[in-house]
Q: What sequence folds into this?
C-alpha cells in the first residue's frame, strides 16, 4: 500500500463517491423516486398497459432465446478456442470481441443489410417461405445474440485454460467418450463460469436497445421491447409509465448483480 | 510380449521427440523408461496410451494393433504426474469413474471401489474430496482409479515427480510391493536413476529421442552400452583413457602397480562415511571416493602424492575425446 496522508485519503474518497453518486446513484435514484411519486399507481398502471405488458413479454422471450443460443455456442466456441488448434483461430478470437467494440446501432444496420426482405438472397428467400427475419422476433434475437456474444466466452475461456486438460485426458483413458467426458468432467469444472456468463448475458440482453431498435422496426404493440417502450412512452408524454418500466429494468439488473455477487466467491474455490 | 512399439517417430514442429524407436515391453513386468527431461520418454508413454499420436510407426498392446485406437479403447490405465484428480468428485467417486462409464451394476462398483481403496490404504478417506488429501494420497487415489478398470497395462508418467523426497521414497517402495501383488504390466517414466534402479525389473534408457540401452538394472549398471548410460546411472570420472566410477579407483601411496597414474591430492572432502578426493594428474583432475576408514589408514591429506589404478572388475567405458 502506498502511504497517503489523512486529508488526501478523505479527498480521494469524496471524489470517488461523488463521481459514482452524480453519475449513477442520483439519476437511478430519481427514476425510482418518480416511479413511486404516486405510490404504486404508476407501476400498476404501467403493468396494465397492454403495450408495456406485451413489450415485457417480448423482452423476456428475446432475452431467453438469446441467452440459450449464446450459452450453447459460447461454450462450444470456448472449447474450440482452448482445446483445439486450427488455422484462423486468432482471427476467430478477435472477431468474438468485435461486438464489444462496435456500436449496437451499426450491428442492427449490418443485420438489416444482410437479412432484409427486399434485396440480398437470404431475406427474400426466407420471407417467400413465410419466415420473416427483419422486423420480427428472429431478427431481434439475432441482434441480441450478437451484442451479448462475447460474455459467455470471455468467462469460460480463462477457466478452461486454468483447469487444463489433464482431467479430460484421465477420463478418456478410463474409457469415457467425448460426450461423457464433457458432461461428467469438463462441464462441472466450468459450471460457475457458465452461470456467471449467463447472468451477464441476460442482463445485457434485457437492456439492449440500439441494435434491436433498427432490426425490429419499432412497431408499437408488436416488436417493441421494454427499452423501446421506455423511449416511445417518454416521447409521447407518458413519463410516469416510462419511469415505471425503467424501474422494472433496473430491478432485473440489480437482481443480476446480486446473483453475480453471490457466485463470485464460489469461483475462487 | 505385452507392448510392442515399432519404428515410432514423433515430431513437434522441428523438434524430434522420438526418432525411429522400437521397444518390446514384456508382460507382467515393471519397466522404467529412464532418461533426462525432454528426452522423449513421456512422449513415448503418451503415444502408448493413445493420448498422443505417432507420426509413423505402430503400437501393439497384448496382440492387438492399437496404433489407430482412441485412448478409451486401448485398455490402459494412465497415472499423471500432477494426479489429474476429478476435483468435484469424492475419492470413492473418482475411483468408481471408469466402472460407472462401463455401466457396471451398483453393488459390484461399490465392492470393487472398497477393495481398491483398501489396496491403496485410503479406505477411511472415501468420502473426502481430493483437495483434502495430501499429494501422496492423491497419487495413490489416481492409481486406484486407473486400476479399477482392470487395464491390460498400467502407465505412469513421472508418478512421484511432484512429491517431496521422503514421500517419493515411500511411494516407490509401495509401488514395487503393489506390483508384486497385482502383477499388471506396468511402465513408468522417470528421470531419477535411483528410482528406476530400485523399482524396475527392466529399464529402457531414452535420450534425445533414441533408445540408448535396454536391460535389467544390474546389466545397465555393470555393462553400460556407452558413456551416456554410464554417466546417467551414476557418477563417473576419467582416469587416463577410460571412464569409470569414482569408487572403482584403487589408490596407493607408493608406485606399485604397472600403469598406475600418479597425481597430487588437491581437495579432500568428508561426506558422512565417504571421503571424496580430487587428484590432479597429468591427464586432468580425477575424482576418487574412499571409505573414511580406508582414507585414514592410508593417511591421505591434501598435498599427498598418490598412484591411481582401476580396480579389478571395475565397470569401465572408453572415454570420449575430452571436451
A:
Amino acid at each position: 500500500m502506498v502511504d497517503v496522508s489523512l486529508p488526501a485519503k478523505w479527498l480521494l474518497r469524496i471524489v470517488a463517491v461523488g463521481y459514482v453518486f452524480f453519475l449513477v446513484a442520483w439519476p437511478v435514484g430519481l427514476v425510482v423516486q418518480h416511479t413511486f411519486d404516486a405510490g404504486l399507481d404508476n407501476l400498476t398502471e404501467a403493468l396494465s398497459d397492454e403495450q408495456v405488458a406485451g413489450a415485457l413479454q417480448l423482452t423476456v422471450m428475446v432475452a431467453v432465446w438469446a441467452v440459450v443460443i449464446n450459452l450453447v455456442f459460447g461454450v462450444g466456441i470456448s472449447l474450440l478456442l482452448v482445446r483445439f488448434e486450427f488455422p484462423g483461430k486468432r482471427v476467430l478470437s478477435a472477431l468474438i470481441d468485435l461486438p464489444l467494440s462496435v456500436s449496437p446501432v451499426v450491428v442492427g444496420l449490418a443485420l438489416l443489410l444482410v437479412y432484409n426482405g427486399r434485396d440480398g438472397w437470404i431475406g427474400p428467400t426466407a420471407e417467400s417461405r413465410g419466415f420473416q427475419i427483419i422486423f420480427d422476433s428472429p431478427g431481434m434475437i439475432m441482434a441480441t445474440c450478437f451484442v451479448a456474444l462475447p460474455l459467455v466466452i470471455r468467462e469460460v475461456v480463462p477457466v478452461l485454460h486454468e483447469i487444463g486438460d489433464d482431467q479430460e485426458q484421465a477420463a478418456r483413458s478410463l474409457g469415457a467418450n467425448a460426450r461423457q467426458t464433457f458432461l461428467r468432467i469438463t462441464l462441472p469444472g466450468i459450471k460457475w463460469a457458465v452461470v456467471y456468463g449467463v447472468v451477464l448475458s441476460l442482463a445485457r440482453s434485457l437492456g439492449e436497445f440500439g441494435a434491436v431498435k433498427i432490426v425490429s422496426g419499432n412497431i408499437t404493440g408488436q416488436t417493441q421491447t421494454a427499452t423501446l417502450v421506455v423511449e416511445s412512452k417518454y416521447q409521447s408524454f407518458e413519463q410516469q409509465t416510462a419511469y415505471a418500466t425503467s424501474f422494472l429494468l433496473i430491478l432485473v439488473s440489480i437482481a443480476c448483480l446480486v446473483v453475480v455477487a453471490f457466485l463470485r466467491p464460489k469461483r475462487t474455490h | 510380449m505385452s507392448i510392442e512399439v515399432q519404428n515410432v517417430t514423433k515430431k513437434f514442429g522441428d523438434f524430434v521427440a522420438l526418432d525411429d524407436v522400437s521397444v518390446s515391453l514384456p508382460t507382467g513386468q515393471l519397466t522404467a523408461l529412464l532418461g533426462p527431461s525432454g528426452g522423449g520418454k513421456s512422449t513415448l508413454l503418451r503415444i502408448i496410451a493413445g493420448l498422443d499420436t505417432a507420426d509413423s510407426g505402430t503400437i501393439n498392446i497384448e496382440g492387438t494393433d492399437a496404433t489407430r485406437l482412441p485412448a478409451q479403447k486401448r485398455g490402459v490405465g494412465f497415472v499423471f504426474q500432477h494426479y489429474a484428480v476429478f476435483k468435484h468428485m469424492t475419492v470413492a467417486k473418482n475411483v468408481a469413474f471408469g466402472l460407472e462409464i462401463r455401466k457396471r451394476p451398483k453393488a459390484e462398483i461399490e465392492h470393487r471401489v472398497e477393495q481398491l481403496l483398501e489396496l491403496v490404504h485410503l479406505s477411511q478417506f472415501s468420502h473426502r474430496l481430493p483437495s483434502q488429501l495430501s499429494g501422496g494420497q492423491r497419487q495413490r487415489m489416481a492409481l486406484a482409479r486407473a486400476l479399477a478398470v482392470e487395464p491390460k497395462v498400467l502407465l505412469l508418467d513421472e508418478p512421484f515427480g511432484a512429491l517431496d523426497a521422503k514421500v517419493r521414497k515411500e511411494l516407490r517402495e509401495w509401488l514395487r510391493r503393489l506390483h508384486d501383488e497385482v502383477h499388471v504390466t506396468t511402465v513408468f517414466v522417470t528421470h531419477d536413476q535411483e528410482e528406476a534402479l530400485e523399482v524396475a525389473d527392466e529399464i529402457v534408457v531414452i535420450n534425445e529421442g533414441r533408445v540408448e540401452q535396454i536391460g535389467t538394472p544390474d546389466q545397465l549398471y555393470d555393462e553400460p552400452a556407452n558413456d551416456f548410460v554410464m554417466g546417467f546411472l551414476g557418477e563417473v570420472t576419467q582416469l587416463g583413457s577410460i571412464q569409470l566410477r569414482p569408487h572403482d579407483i584403487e589408490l596407493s601411496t607408493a608406485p606399485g602397480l604397472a600403469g598406475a597414474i600418479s597425481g597430487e591430492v588437491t581437495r579432500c572432502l568428508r561426506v558422512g562415511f565417504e571421503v571424496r578426493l580430487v587428484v590432479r594428474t597429468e591427464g586432468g583432475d580425477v575424482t576418487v571416493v574412499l571409505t573414511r576408514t580406508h582414507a585414514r589408514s592410508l593417511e591421505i591429506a591434501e598435498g599427498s602424492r598418490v598412484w591411481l589404478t582401476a580396480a579389478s572388475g571395475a565397470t569401465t567405458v572408453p572415454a570420449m575425446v575430452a571436451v
